[in-house]
Amino acid sequence: MLLLALTSQWVFAQSTRYTVTGTVTDARTKSPLPGVVVKFQNSNNATATDGAGKYSLVANLPAGTYQLTFSFLGFKPEKRSVALGAAESASVDVQLSEDIVGLDEVVVTGTSVATSKKQLGNAISTVSAAALENSVATSVDQALAGKVAGAQISQNSGNPAGGISVRLRGTSTVVGSGDPLYIVDGVIINNSSPELIDLGGYAQNRLVDINPNDIDRIEIIKGAAAAAIYGSRASNGVVQIFTKRGKEGKPKVVASTQLRVSEVRKTLDYNDYPFRFVNTDRADQTQEPVQRYDYQDKIFRTAFGTENNISVSGGSANTQYFLSGNYLKNQGIIDNTNFNRGGARLRIDQTLNNWISISMGANYTLSTSEEIPNGGLSEAYGALTGFIFSNNFINPDPDPVTGVYPSTAPTAILRRTNPLEAINRFDFEQRTNRFIGDFQVMLTPIENLNINYVLGYDNATQIATGFIPVGNTTPSYETGYSRRADRTSYLLNNDLNVSYRTMLADWLESTTGVGATAQVEKYYGTGTTATQLGPITRITTGARIVSGEERSEINILGFFAQQTFGIGDRLFITGAGRYDVSSVFGEENRWQFYPKVSGSYLISNEKFWQNLSSVIPILKLRASYGQAGNLTAIRAFDRYTNYTPVALPGLPGVVSPSLLGNTSIKPERQVETELGLDMSLLDGRLGLEFSYYNKDVEDLLLFVNLNPSSGFLNQYANVGTMTNKGFELMLTGAPVQQENVKWTSTIIYSRNRNEVNNIPGGVLTFPGGFGQVAAVDGYPIGAFYSTYFARNPDGSLLLNAAGLPQPERVGRNPETGQPAGATVPKVIGDPNPDWTGSWVNELSFGKNFSFRTQFDAAYGFDVFNFTRRVGERDLYGGLAGYEPELRGEVPKGTSAALFSIFENYIEDGSYIKLREVSLAYVFQPAFLGNNNLRLTLAGRNLFSIDDYSGYDPEVNAAGQTNAVRGFDFVEVPIPRTYALGVQVSF
Q1: How far is Cα 860 from Cα 847, in angstroms, rounded to an integer?
Q2: What are residue 152's phi and psi, to 5 degrees?
């Protein structure tokens, strides 16, 4: 009743129709600023400046004094008081200053309350659309690489839709997804990487369905202390994506097209020695002449692509719209591979009255891809796998008469696929239909009270097909192979957030927030595989058919409350708590509570600091503590022992699974403490952001091995702990800031130390790395754990009687001093970098020219070069590393001896990459009515400075997995890409 009374009083108060006009300009260049949002504080009345920087804001308000806010991304927000009385019009002009440091940015922290970063007790990173537009990236996560402190973003594959791994402040889980929670305009979206067909470890992220050109800004919440408000899904951090919206004014059309050219940046040195040994007998040195072939020249190509975007936006004071369409065609550098994406997006914002507004969004995407399988980890068919197992003295081309491809592997030992046959005869495709929609209601029934409701929906259907014709060179499917699999995902989130901000005293501000969420995840999957096909069959109809189906449903409920006090506009204290319940775990462990507390102290707002404000305008200390969970680390029914139904002759039956259920397992819990410092210097031209964090993961879920006598092989259990400790540093400055010349530079440095403990037996190996990757007590996750060289006391290699290197073993022969017994493993490498960093420079000259570069670096990590292990072995010998044995520079048999010593294939993966470079020129030609025309020349991954002998130290053959990183087994290299673009706006 009180709420209704207050609402009625506010709505029906005596009001007048007022019009406020003015012009907003750039304080540095004095140029008009289009797109600045102008609104009455705590009201839905808002408008935006036009191309000339002018605005006109109309509102029905009672007479009085009001606050006008002016906000524009990349500029410091401004407030102006405007007195509305007898006159029905007023004028307010404003100049906005560039926010070089970004501490004045306004972010949304989960309670739908817009908050200045200066007030937060934890670090939140923001990335603008301007930082993404010339990145030449296919997906959003790919474009974020090098732009976020504390984030390790790596591209696992050079395929045209190559999978991306995003790790915020290290890896926080092993069995679950390591990706952060992604939210697009309030919609929780799916970013899984399902492998419906075996492509050798590579899988697409579903974030590839989001068009980067549609994005307005991105906010990254990195730690549990900040993400606790998101509860059970936020243990890996949160990435909030905000798409572009329409603004009041006449229709604005922006159209762009871009031509891309991609090429392999580096190929492997291949064996071109014109002789080969006639056998592998060490005593027989006989060689015969051969002709060598460069297989890579036949596999890789120069790829072309195009990206096209068009958008129309505008609206009235009460209705704004944004409509866009896009089409991307991106060829891969492996012949006959490509990725195509087409889509459309619509956003409508409607103000119904002074206290009710609604927003509706819809995004549809259709993507298709033609794939070439790579094989290697699970299957033995594939192009690059066939290449590395080939004897490159065999011509891989098909017989000119019969068209039959020869087997290029040493068939007396093993069979592998002719790489050219995989490219030209295999047919592997994927297709995804996806719709993301939302409906939002925003209410401000009384001043300072905000009620927001969001209904989010994400539905995607991914279909994959694979076909290998009858009569081929594969080792397993000579009689043909056909597979069809599909997976439909359905995510629904209902979120209600209520916040109230008020001044309890002239020195004490209170912001209270409460909310609730109800979420549903459903997955439906089927798969059918057929072998022993007929001679003309392509579909899954054959003599032997294996099919399977999976259905899954997860329900999550959450409730939270948060209270913030601002004391004297300098001390801000926040406390919050969230209860979540998930259907994934048993009844005893479903309900979980996640607390959070944080504080920030703006020392620069103290009176005693005023004399220093010209030198250090902003100085803030911050600290936070919080917990977040991982209620989705396992699948819906993994806590059970799930028997598989089978049909026996005349009787139904079940087969025991290999996974033993565990109904008492708990969700993982992440506990983080963060300390930080934010400051600006030199009148805001230099900014520093520093954060230290200590993140502990309790009740770590692992896939443990069981004794065979149990009747099962594996079980999920809470048996480990994991710790991530590190710090992040971001330094942003404007060395030159003049009216016609501007230079801004940003340096990001991130350091993380990961360690796992309490592993059963001290060591737990992971699949996906041929048993050579493990969790080892006291070491980082995914350490390379395998055989190593036997050495003398002085560190030199201990050779065997034949003069060949050998692995260390459990003991030594007392008579000969030679290793004896079984081989003994140890930690031989670490795929986790000591630090990562980036250096971004942006220069603008006048109003026409701009230039941008971004260098990314990762230092102090190892790569397991399994590619070199196979390619330098005498049985295959396709790489140049085998030539010394052919030339007699090392004893014959050296490559065979090294083959069992995995330490030999651990390499330093440290690199510095020119990730992005772009040059843009904007002008206003008369034939376009003096509207803007922008020409852009850009490049991505142009060069890499590293000592790695493989294609690229960044790739990972195990895809987006958490445990297996830095494992290179002929994964498609990341291409060098050039792009020429044109954009016109009118």
Answers
A1: 42
A2: -105, 110
Closest of 625, 716, 624 to residue 662, by C-alpha: 716
**pLDDT for the residue numbered 14:** 64
Phi-psi region of 889 (alpha: psi -120 to 50; beta: other; left: phi over 0): alpha
Q: What is the spatial distance between Cα 957 and Cα 228, in angstroms, rounded to a whole number? A: 33
The more confidently predicted of residues 317 and 785 is: 785
**Contact (Cβ atoms closer than 8 angstroms) between residue 662 and residue 651:** no
Query: With contact defined as beta carbons under 8 Å apart, do 233 and 241 qualify?
Result: no
Q: Number of helices and strands (H, E) in the chain? A: 10, 54
Question: For the segment 540-575, what is each residue's pLDDT rounded down to a tens digit?
Answer: 666 788 888 899 999 999 999 999 999 998 999 999
- Cα separation, 192 vs 177, in Å, equals 8
How many Cα atoms sit within 13 Å of 782 on the Cβ side?
28
Q: Which of 682, 689, 717, 690 is nearest to 703 (CA)?
A: 717
**pLDDT tens digits for range 671-727:** 999 999 999 998 888 999 999 999 999 999 888 888 888 889 889 999 889 999 999
CB 809 within 8 A of CB 827: no
Q: Are 892 and 802 in contact (CB under 8 A)?
A: no
Residue 425 phi/psi, 5-degree rounding, is: -115, -30
Beta bridge partners of 429: 370, 465
Q: Which residue has the higher pLDDT, 382 or 621?
A: 621
Alpha-carbon 616 to chain mean position: 35
Cβ atoms within 10 Å, residue 399: 10
User: Is 70 exceeded by the pLDDT of residue 5?
Assistant: no
Structure tokens at 247: 């603004």
CA–CA separation, 495 and 453 (whole Å): 6
Long-range contacts of 140-143 (CB under 8 A, 24+ apart): 140/207, 140/210, 140/212, 140/215, 140/218, 140/241, 141/166, 141/205, 141/207, 143/212
Q: What are the distances in angstroms from CA 312 to CA 33, 37, 245, 928?
A: 19, 18, 10, 17
The average confidence (pLDDT) of the chain is: 90
- Percent of the chain at pLDDT > 70 equals 97
Return all residues near 636 (Cβ < 8 A) that are at least 6 apart.
552, 553, 554, 583, 584
User: Residue 671's closest CA among 750, 729, 592?
Assistant: 592
Distance, CA of 185 to CA of 240 (rounded, Å): 8
For the record, the structure tokens of 917 come out as: 């470079």
Instruction: Say if residue 655 is exposed, middle or buried (CB neighbours under 10 Å; 0-12, 13-18, 19+).
Output: exposed
CA distance linking residue 271 with residue 293, whole number of Å? 9
CB atoms within 10 A of CB 535: 8
Whether 169 and 724 have beta carbons less than 8 Å apart is answered as yes
pLDDT value for 31: 87
Is the pTM higher than 0.85?
yes
Nearest in space to 574 (alpha carbons), one of 640, 645, 627, 623: 623
pLDDT, tens digit, for every residue of 786-829?
999 999 999 999 999 999 999 999 999 999 999 999 999 999 99
Q: Which of 107, 47, 19 is nearest to 349 (CA)?
A: 47
pLDDT tens digits for range 96-136: 988 877 777 777 765 556 677 777 888 888 898 889 988 89
* Two structure tokens written together for 924: 């206003």
599 - beta bridge partners? 573, 623
State the pLDDT at residue 213.
Answer: 94
Going by DSSP bridges, is the β-strand pair 862-865/967-968 parallel, antiparallel, or unpaired?
parallel
Q: What integer is the mean pLDDT of 414-420? A: 93
